Amino acid sequence: MLKIKNLHASVEGEKILKGINLEINPGEVHAIMGPNGSGKSTLASVIAGNEDFEVTKGDILFEKANISELSPEERAHKGIFLSFQYPVEIPGVSVTNFIKTSINQVRKAQGQKDMPANEMLKKIREKSALLEMDRKFLSRSLNEGFSGGEKKRNEIFQMAMLEPKLAILDETDSGLDIDALRIVADGVNRLKTKDNATLVITHYQRLLDYVIPDVVHVLMDGKIVKTGGKELAKELEEKGYDWLKEERAEMTS
Amino acid sequence: MELKDKLMSSYLAFEEQVDLENDIHEVRNKAIKFFEQTGFPTKKEEAWKYTSLNSILKEDYSIFPKKEDAIDYKDIKKYLIHDIDTYTIVFVDGIYSSHLSRTTHDKLDACLMSSALDKEKYKPIIDKYFNKIVPEDSMSSLNTAFAKEGAYIRIPKNVVAEKPIQIMNFFTSNEAALMVQPRNLIIAEEGAHVQIIERHQSLTDHPVLTNSVTEVYVGKNADVDYYKIQNDRITSSLIDNTFIKQERDSRCSMHTFSLGGKITRNNLKFYQHGENCDSVLKGVTILEDKQHVDHNTLVHHTFPNCESHQDYKGIFSEKSVGVFNGSVLVDRLAQKTNAFQSNNNILIDDTATCNSKPQLEIFADDVKCSHGCTIGQLDNEALYYLRSRGIPKKEARALLMFAFANKVLSSVKIPEIKKRITKQIALKLGVELGFNL
């Protein structure tokens, strides 16, 4: 589904990603872990099409098509979804109006008519219940004054509504207490099918207790330095990242 | 001939048309003398620092339109709020158009200033209210000097006007250029309720200059809800002078939608004259293409326990200019005043200009007053967030601008106006959004 080949990216001339190779197949959950500043969020942004980042080398293929040149909205239309680490507050647009606009714009791009109002309403009810969201929450301004947990729940609600093929969860566990974490993780798990894929980006192993990855990658200094199964996450939790740094230093010397 | 000289000589001709015995004429004489001394305002005056009238004063305006140009309802329908029942007072080139209007004397007066000024039965009211709260400034004085026609609205005690009243000024102009000076008087007596919509709309590309004065009296516990729709052609300019006096326990809200015109100046002054008054001043300004809008507001708090809320939003692009100069004056006696003012602006590109100048003068020591003004760009992060959800750039920009203006629109009490303004904003932004804000 997603194939990243020798991806290099920089922001304001500073090289962040230095040759990423990654392949994710339908039905898989991948986790990318790594210390702060290793380039995890940059990778998420580059896949989603954030124009602040410049791809200097390499390709991003999604369902075999090169998407490196596509705008963020075009990528969303293809079925890529990014759950933001810091969702933006937009006063004056309610959660409901936002998600309606979003869904209908995606449908428009795919040559479909607007979703009928009753169908939309039913879906909003169903998906907000999945995330245990209060009805009042839906009429509030998007992310304005939301707690950290509410913001993340709202991100997963949007994901549930949009039903993307590839969902990228960027530090979705940060700022969540244990109950919110469980609700969010349950939501993610229930949205999993054999046809979609999930890329979980996290600093900590905590979320991976709930959303079990098939593959774990460790990102350091803009490169994937180690790939393994879910046990790799546990190992990182116990030993930290230092041993990998040392291992890497030995390899490069 | 300079416009000022032309106006001075026109005044002599004007005196032949009006009743010189009427007490009002003394008021006019005094006003024209004041205007003769001061002339048009210039940028040297603090209140006009950011707005020069030079470009519009050089036209050779006709001061008296020759005759009413016949226009049909179909020509003006789209400018009216026509999907609900209203009283409508229509002027074409400053002259009352009876066949386009729907006036009334039943329960309330929604009719003409000219008859109110002339007819004996209105004299006590004219004596009590006419030109009583208009400050001596050059543009208002000029209007007073030529005061003759406009809307006269009086809602008697405890009457709730069941339909909004529209004051519509259209310009067809047989003349090359036209100057008009409507004079409106609105009186909501104790406990009365009224909604008013005012619009100035040119139907021609000849230059039009409107210098209008509106006096609004809001009686005890009365409620006036007023909407000004300013979306005129790039050849038309408007100097709107609106003065509002509120008695105790009254509410008055003014929404000003400035979406088009060459130069638009809104002098909007609220004078509170009793306890527990509530004054609301809101504005949405969206400009492009060298348009210029100047909001000059004042709320004068003179009694304790009153409130005022000012909220003006502006979006400017393509060499357009926005000015906000908002004053709040709290007298020593006006304890427990709650006065809020906010002015937020977005500059779409670097050719647009915005000047924001809040002025708070507070002489009471137990008050809550706040003000804030911001000038910025559209938030790029928010734009990216919306786009990442599949909303294309153009629509995402529009959505953010809507969201920005939404706070002002949310207090509009007439749904048809809200719908209309939302649609006009969407049209300006060249998008269609799948919902109403």
From TrEMBL, chain A:
MF GO annotations: ATP binding; ATP hydrolysis activity
Pfam families named in the record: ABC_tran
Keyword set includes Metal-binding: no
Domain ABC transporter: 2-246
The keyword Transmembrane is annotated on this UniProt entry: no
Entry superkingdom: Bacteria
UniProt entry keywords in alphabetical sequence: ATP-binding, Nucleotide-binding
Gene3D superfamilies documented for this protein: P-loop containing nucleotide triphosphate hydrolases (3.40.50.300)
Stored PANTHER family: ABC TRANSPORTER I FAMILY MEMBER 6, CHLOROPLASTIC
Family membership: Belongs to the ABC transporter superfamily. Ycf16 family.
Protein name: Fe-S cluster assembly ATPase SufC
Name of the encoding gene: sufC
UniProtKB/TrEMBL annotation, chain B:
Domain (SUF system FeS cluster assembly SufBD N-terminal): residue spans on this chain: 22-167
A biological process from GO: iron-sulfur cluster assembly
Tree of life domain: Bacteria
Domain SUF system FeS cluster assembly SufBD core: 172-404
InterPro entries: Fe-S_cluster_assembly_SufBD (IPR055346), SUF_FeS_clus_asmbl_SufBD_core (IPR000825), SUF_FeS_clus_asmbl_SufBD_sf (IPR037284), SUF_FeS_clus_asmbl_SufD (IPR011542), SufBD_N (IPR045595)
Family: Belongs to the iron-sulfur cluster assembly SufBD family.
Annotated protein name in UniProt: Fe-S cluster assembly protein SufD
Taxonomic lineage: Bacteria, Pseudomonadati, Bacteroidota, Flavobacteriia, Flavobacteriales
